[in-house]
Amino acid sequence: MNTIVFATGNKHKIRELEVIFSGLVRINTLMEIGLEADFEETGTTFLENSIQKAIYYSKKTSFPVVADDSGLEIDALNGDPGIYSARYFSPRMSYGERCRQILEKMAKVERSVRSARFRCAASCAFNGEVIGTGEGRVTGMIAFDAAGRGGFGYDPIFYYPPFKKTFSEMTMEEKNQISHRKAAFEALVEQMLPWLQAQ
Ligand code: IMP
Predict the structure, then answer these.
(1) So what's the pLDDT on residue 199?
(2) Which of 11, 113, 138, 181 has its CA 20 to 30 A from that of 152?
């Protein structure tokens, strides 16, 4: 089985990816191959950031490198936090506090205009060359209260009407059926397959 490196330090994302890629490729983390997570995002889109990140680390290892960039877009906040999701309000603020602050900002926003989406772009690079990219999104709404204990980041306040649950209330299997990350990585794997098979 091929090994790819997933350029993230986020253990929740790694678990999600292991499920998505199971049986297809072996996933190693940056830490497992002795690389430091020192890439700084300067792009203006999710796709640009994921491409730059994959290229950056692929020049430091002989394995193909997969990188993603993702975030939450809230329509009532003009698309914020968007590409700044990991640093919204303050980079040191806990996600519990960030979710509370968003709920506060949205306190007077009616149900009909609470739409939001998670977006993800995923890219793979090998020796500094892009092998494939993929993008995914999932649309839902910002809940009125945080709910659930699972997941990470903004999961407790992202309500997905078809399942009548927030992402935090879902099992990983449920989230992986419909998530932005799953859609982005599926599109990426489809583009990568010919390359993977040729290895
Ligand atoms: P990055 O993709 O590592 O730059 O992080 C983007 C940020 O978006 C994460 O730290 C989370 O705050 C948020 N985010 C991205 N995907 C998810 C998700 O599936 N659930 C909850 N929050 C997410």
Answers:
(1) 77
(2) 113
- State yes or no: pLDDT of 82 exceeds 80: yes
d(CA 73, CA 117): 5
Secondary structure letter of residue 26 according to DSSP: E
String of DSSP letters for 130-167: EEEEEEEEEEEEE-SS---SSS-TTGGGEEEGGGTEEG
Domain that holds residue 92: 2-198
Residue 103 belongs to domain with CATH number = 3.90.950.10
Reported as a single tens digit per residue, the pLDDT across 146-167 is 999 999 999 999 999 999 999 9
In total, how many domains does the chain have? Answer: 1
pLDDT of residue 197: 78
Ligand 1, residue 95: give the atom nearest the CA: 12
User: How many CB atoms sit inside 10 A of residue 172's CB?
Assistant: 15
State the distance from the centre of ligand 1 to the C-alpha of 181, rounded, in angstroms: 10
Q: How far is the CA of 70 from the centre of ligand 1 (A)?
A: 5
Q: Is 118 in the pocket of ligand 1 (CB under 6 A)?
A: yes
Decide: pTM greater than 0.90: yes
Q: Which helix (H) or strand (E) holds 190?
A: helix 180-198
- State in Å: Cα 128 to ligand 1 middle: 25
- Mind telling me the catalytic residues? 69
